[in-house]
Amino acid sequence: MNFESILKIASTNGPMFLRGAGMTLLISMIGTVVGFIIGLLIGIVRTIPIPENGAKKVILKFVNTIFSIYIEIFRGTPMIVQAMVIYYGSAAAFGVDMNRIFAAIFIVSINTGAYMSEIIRGGIVSIDKGQFEAAQAIGMNHIQTMVNVILPQAIRNILPAMGNEFVINIKDTSVLNVISVTELYFQTKSVAGNNFKYYESFFIACVLYFIMTFTITRILRYIERRLDGPENYVKYANEMQVKKAMIGRTKECNANQY
Predict the structure, then answer these.
(1) Are 175 and 83 in contact (CB under 8 A)?
(2) How far is 246 from 240, CA to CA, in rounded Å?
């Protein structure tokens, strides 16, 4: 490995690599956030109890069918194919000339939304049914139950999977070079095409991808630890209650003896 050549390429084309890395982070971050919102809405709707009869049953079944088709299509096809179909297909079929950055964010968002919806639905289903019943017993509707009882627990449980989706999006943005989005892979390919040193150029890209994904995973792990709270803690209130109860019982026993 020629480290001098790698350093020379990095110093000469540093701004291109950094612009590409910045675009990769921008697309993956916005796409993950929007995808999470899409997945959250779909996950909540798909967990609404379906009544036995009435118009609400028909509406919910129809909506769930549409969501199922959306999920199966975008989970069952590669993102690179989705990018080609959405970007070039919208221009050919509807005459819509989409901005490449907008198209990239849109593609990543709807792709992530399909995966997030199943992740969130699984997190909701994993919560004990007794909590749903308890919330309904005190008069909460489905939305109130989700916001106040279920989602705070479900989101903590699915946080590792959500972080994994973010990391996957950072890497999968490389397929967006097929619609000429100037992310890291596209910029690296341009650099390698100019200097004909593909190994050295893509080695730099490899290091940048690793730095981004490793940093994100460390940040998410820190957030998980913060949400977990301390491993060792003392329940002061409970201890005081136990001590008071024990003192009361001791006095009662002594009084009975006399």
Answers:
(1) yes
(2) 10
CB–CB of 24/169 below 8 Å? no
pLDDT 10s digits, 119-167: 999 999 888 888 888 988 898 888 889 889 999 889 888 999 999 999 9
> Which CB contacts under 8 angstroms, 24+ apart, belong to 193-200?
195/9, 197/5, 197/9, 200/2, 200/5, 200/6, 200/9
Contact 98, 90 (CB under 8 A): yes
Compute the Cα dihedral for 100, 26, 17, 220 and give only its sign. Answer: negative
Q: Look at residue 230 in the predicted model and tell me its pLDDT.
A: 67
Q: In three state form, how does the secondary structure of 101-125 look? A: HHHHHHHHHHHHHHHHHHHHHHHHH
CATH code, 3-227: 1.10.3720.10
Residues 6+ apart with CB under 8 A from 153: 127, 131
Which long-range CB contacts under 8 A does 121-126 form with residues at least 24 apart? 121/42, 121/43, 121/46, 121/47, 122/158, 123/43, 123/154, 123/155, 123/157, 123/158, 124/43, 124/44, 124/47, 124/150, 124/151, 124/154, 125/47, 126/154, 126/157
Tokens of 23: 């675009």
Residue 252: burial class (beta carbons within 10 Å; 0-12, 13-18, 19+): exposed
Length of the chain: 258
Long-range pairs for 91-97 at CB < 8 Å and ≥24 separation?
Answer: none
Question: Rounded to an integer, what distance in angstroms lies between the CA atom of residue 150 and that of residue 141?
Answer: 12
Do 169 and 112 form a contact (C-beta atoms < 8 A)? Answer: yes
Round to whole Å and give the CA distance between 67 and 98. 25
* pLDDT value, residue 106: 96
